[in-house]
Amino acid sequence: MLAAALVAAVCVAVAAAQPTAPPATVYAAASLSDAFPKIAPRAHFSFAGSNALAAQIRQGAPADVFASANVKLPFALYGEGFCSRPVVFTRNSLVLIVPSSNPAHIHRISDVTRKGVKLVIAAKGVPVGDYTLQVLSKLHLARALSNVVSRETDVREVLAKVALDEADAGFVYSTDTRTVPGKVKTLAIPARGRPNIEYGICVVLRNDRTAGHNFVRRILSPAGQRILLRYGFLPRRP
Fold first, then answer.
1. Which residues touch 55 (CB under 8 Å, ≥6 apart)?
2. Is residue 110 a part of any domain in this protein?
3. Which of 60, 59, 33 is nearest to 46 (CA)?
């Protein structure tokens, strides 16, 4: 019994002496601001527009992981040798939002083309901005661009403008609407205009690859995927 107790004590001491794995530094799309910290509470996060984060990584920012609201940006970094080959880790959908009071009386997507409507969208190059332009093009509503009063740097800025009644309408991800309950109403985009929204993730090669790979494994794990679903993200395609 004494010998067993001594062995157990030594094992505990050795385990305590071993350093814990360092947390990953994760550069992630603004739409992941609520879900990611629930999946990996110890990680260090920088949330912003995916295009801005990709530019920072090119300039040497200390990121271990890049999680983008599209696959275009991480695949560009992969092609340039900055990160590992990206994988799709979740999906999303785009919706049109209006303030809960709906002062412009917008009841369908085509209403954003009416004269006097104040429309806010994300800038070109920001994934949600590019998806918005795809929708307007597919639905032949490009004339709505004449109603754009501001072009924001990430989806949360678009959300804030509409939630605060500073705009009559805006395009955001469906997951973002959950963060402002009672502040906005959503309008679904017709099937023929819906973009294919896939999120890509990769490990930045110049920094701590172990921390990066550990984080990606956590996101792709069944537990990580369940949390993403809980926050309204769509499952990965088989």
1. none
2. yes
3. 33
Domain of 72, CATH number, reads 3.40.190.10
Buried b (16+ CB within 10 A) or exposed e, 144-153: beebbebbbb
**What are the tens digits of pLDDT across the range 178-212?**
999 999 999 999 999 999 999 999 999 987 799 99
- Find out whether 137 and 195 touch, Cβ atoms under 8 Å: no
DSSP codes of every residue in 28-55: EEGGGTTHHHHH-TTSEEEEE-HHHHHH
- Both tokens of 85, joined, read 């080959």
Together in a domain, 139 and 226: no
Cβ atoms 44, 26 nearer than 8 A: yes
SS3 87: strand
Overall domain count for the chain? 2
- The residue segments making up the domain with residue 218 are 22-91+198-230
**71 and 155 assigned to the same domain:** no
The single-letter code of the amino acid at 58 is R
Residue 203 phi/psi, 5-degree rounding, is -95, 130
Dist CA 126 CA 151 (whole Å) = 10
CA pair distance 138, 141, nearest whole angstrom:
8
Q: What is the pTM of this model?
A: 0.89
Sign for the CA dihedral angle at 225, 62, 82, 208 comes to: negative
- Residue 64 tokens, joined: 């271990």
Over residues 42-68, the pLDDT tens digits come to: 999 999 999 999 999 999 999 999 999
